[in-house]
Write a structure and sequence with these properties.
The structure is a homotrimer. Chain A has five helices and 40 strands. The first copy, chain A, is α/β, with parallel strands linked by helices. Chain A folds into three domains: 87 residues, Udp-n-acetylmuramoylalanyl-d-glutamate--2,6- Diaminopimelate Ligase, Chain: A, domain 1 (3-Layer(aba) Sandwich), CATH 3.40.1390; 203 residues, 3 Solenoid (UDP N-Acetylglucosamine Acyltransferase, domain 1), CATH 2.160.10; 32 residues. In chain A, the strands form six sheets. Chain A has an eleven-stranded parallel sheet, with no helix packed on it. Chain A starts with a strand and ends with a helix. The interface between A and C is large, with 74 and 76 residues. β39 of chain B pairs antiparallel with β40 of chain C.
């Protein structure tokens, strides 16, 4: 899809430095862009790439325009404008409405005429699929699931049972939504499984990454509010509630019955134990484990950065002798007091 | 399924405070239960919910009965009794015996007449599926796998090859059992793959969570004994042995050739390195990495809880100067000794 | 496949201690091997098993030959020779060329006659599958993917779109290659998805483990060079480049736009943040998070081994009082200086 720089500047509210008649057909990185591309600059690590880019135009902040050899679209938030421009130039592919002959759809399921059901799909009893829903190859949608309009279930994803999604969600390949929560009661003869009777309730504009898992609730529903974004290999336990517009990077995990507020961000491999409450606007650093309630917005961390093994091992050895060091300081304090007498 | 409180009290050995003729039809949480539900109280965090519940009855310990506004089933282990009551009121759905026409079953496979094989399933050569086995949509069962009676393989799970399960197991959606172990020998020209020739041997009543992976052994079998419970996104390396009734929460991982004892518990994201031995009755805390043999039952940890970033960074900075601090203490000690002269 | 010890010694350049006419038909571990098996010894933990093995022969280093009760193949790198012997004795199963009738192959796809396409596979538009490619049950291969000769895509794996692989790769079950990168721009109304327009480019002899995920690039391709080995449940973010012969153990993760050098090794659960560069020949310890560029080859760590909970909690408490301890040392130093006056 081709757009002139003038059209893009007007549509997205940017100042344009350059020729408004120049046309671009796609986005590209600074280093790979050519004269039909528009790129962006938002991370100073890539300033050299900016200075040497062959892009037709670059979206960037006013302060960086001096380093730009091409036309410039000036924006306060270049990455956000880039996202919108990229969506304009690269809309998702259109659907081919209909049900592939190899798909198996239960008689009690209701599928909108505008939906596209791919090959080797299985749709269970009492499922409802809305307008323009896309169901990719090999997807399984189990009993009583409801999928909102314009939602996309990608290849080999599974909605196990009693999952409902809002509109415009994307469930990425291999994700499993609505699996049994990990409920086990200890008995003298081993674990007794606790039946998992709830579902998963997903709002609008939610995205769940490849091979992520969201368990259904024990009695009530596990809940992902509007605009939640989960990256790949994320785990959400049963009965968890994730507030609107919260994002979790890859390998993050939230244990059962925890409540996460709105607009939170969990970095990669962050984790939250079960049965705690995290307020709105909390950011959790990479590989950090949150083990208590958080009632104050802010940035929370608890992980050590890796370093040269020899230096790290020295520190760990000193850490192991911290008690001894504290005792030595106490002895010195006692001697000092004795000396004061 | 409806049961009177009198029947439940008698069946599960509880004292009943309330009317034995009252009937319940399902379980629910304290806060969502209505007058046809029975609930439970086992975590003091939820005492307010107990005091205001609309449930017909609550399963709880004797000491908590005073806070219960409804009928009470008194139990020493309320959660365990709840699990049993929930199973009584909510039995799993009955199977529909037979092989869906879209399923592909090898001629050499043997499938019990009572088994249910769903749509788009693929069953390989020399597979044997026992009585009342359920195979969900999109499941692949590879060569020479043997699945015990009443076992359930849920949607899009994969048994790669040479996997045997006992009776009453549940393999959750997307789980991969019997994949190649990570065996690579370094050569001058890169890694040489070591053929993985063993299988996976799984006992009775084992549950493996969504998108978890269990590799088959290099020569012998990887082994999960009776009653093992694995949550979602758990990794079990090749040649590992997991003792009976051991449970691992989400994102836990065990590297190759490690032996884990019976009745162990690994919390979320706990890990165990390869080639070590953990004795029976070991509990590993969340996000803890076990790197040596453990020969004494007990609770083991090694992770820091996250906290406000500024405070954490101060501590990390102090940690980095630990060597310097120890030197300063040594200097003080030397001066003090000098002063003693 | 049967081979004499004499043949194996000659083929793999080993000194043979024992009868060259003895024949072996397979490999096995020291403890399970019988008189038709060859085994290996490379980890001193298993010396007792060496001394009592019933194997016909053992591959080991010269220094260990005295402990071997069987014939011995002497090798400088016993594990490497074992890998080669195992491949010789246990070649992968031959393919059955052809497309299963239940597979759905787009008209625009090109599939080599020698390829084997299993049941319930879906092959999308403009896909090309090379000679002797194996596609397992339930696999989905999306638009424009290109799969090199002798590559194996195992059950329920997904190549989403625009993925190309070299020759002799193995994509294990449930792996998802080419999923959307986690690109989101924050707006006042929540996250705006950044279209992910690149692909994934995979070299020769690459192996990707079960349920691992490799996102495609935002504009350019995510890149895995020749000989890369990823274990299970590994995450590779968009735009990442992984150098040749780098290996990552289970649950490792690399965030977006990071560059990893050649011949690196990431142990289990190691992680690398986004937008950093790691040079060649770096080894990262288990559960270590790398948060900065590394420009010097070597071994890097940053994790604590788990220990008895009581002892660990004492250390954590001392760690939390490190600031106070440093203050006490400063006070002592001031007093000492004062005393010097």
């Amino acid at each position: 899809m081709a757009r002139s720089l003038g059209e893009l500047a007007a549509q997205f509210g940017c100042e344009l430095i350059g020729d408004p008649a120049v046309t671009v057909t796609g986005v590209a990185t600074l280093s790979s862009a050519g004269d039909a591309h528009i790129s962006f600059f938002a991370n100073r690590r890539y300033r050299d790439e900016l200075r040497t880019t062959d892009a037709a135009a670059v979206i960037l902040a006013h302060a960086d325009a001096g380093d730009c050899p091409a036309s410039a679209l000036i924006a306060d938030e270049p990455y956000l404008v880039y996202a919108r421009v990229a969506r304009e130039l690269h809309p998702p592919p259109a659907l081919t409405a209909g049900i592939h002959p190899s798909a198996v759809v239960a008689a009690s399921a209701v599928v909108a005429d505008s939906a596209e059901i791919s090959a080797n799909v299985t749709i269970g009893d009492h499922v409802r699929l809305g307008e323009n829903v896309f169901v990719g190859p090999g997807v399984g949608v189990g009993p009583r699931c409801v999928v909102g309009d314009d939602t996309r279930l990608l290849a080999n994803a599974t909605l196990v049972q009693d999952v409902s999604t809002g509109a415009r969600c994307i469930i990425h390949p291999g994700a499993v939504i609505g699996s049994d929560g990990f409920g086990n009661a200890r008995s003298e003869n081993g674990w007794i499984k606790v039946p998992q009777l709830g579902g998963v309730s997903i709002g609008n504009d939610v995205e769940i990454g490849a091979n992520s898992t969201v368990d259904r609730g024990t009695s009530d529903d596990t809940l992902l509010e509007d605009g939640v974004r989960l990256d790949n290999l994320v785990h959400i336990g049963h009965n968890v509630r994730v507030g609107a517009h919260t994002a979790m990077a890859a390998c993050a995990g939230v244990s059962g019955s925890t409540v996460i507020g709105k607009r939170c961000m969990l970095a990669g491999r962050a984790g939250v134990v079960g049965h705690v409450t995290i307020c709105d606007d909390v950011v959790v650093g990479g590989a950090t484990m949150i083990s208590k309630d958080i009632s104050k917005p802010g940035f929370y961390t608890g992980s050590f950065p890796g370093e040269a093994d020899r230096k790290w091992k020295q520190k760990v050895a000193q850490f192991r002798r911290l008690g001894e060091l504290a005792d030595r300081v106490s002895n010195l304090e006692r001697s000092a007091k004795g000396g004061d007498k």
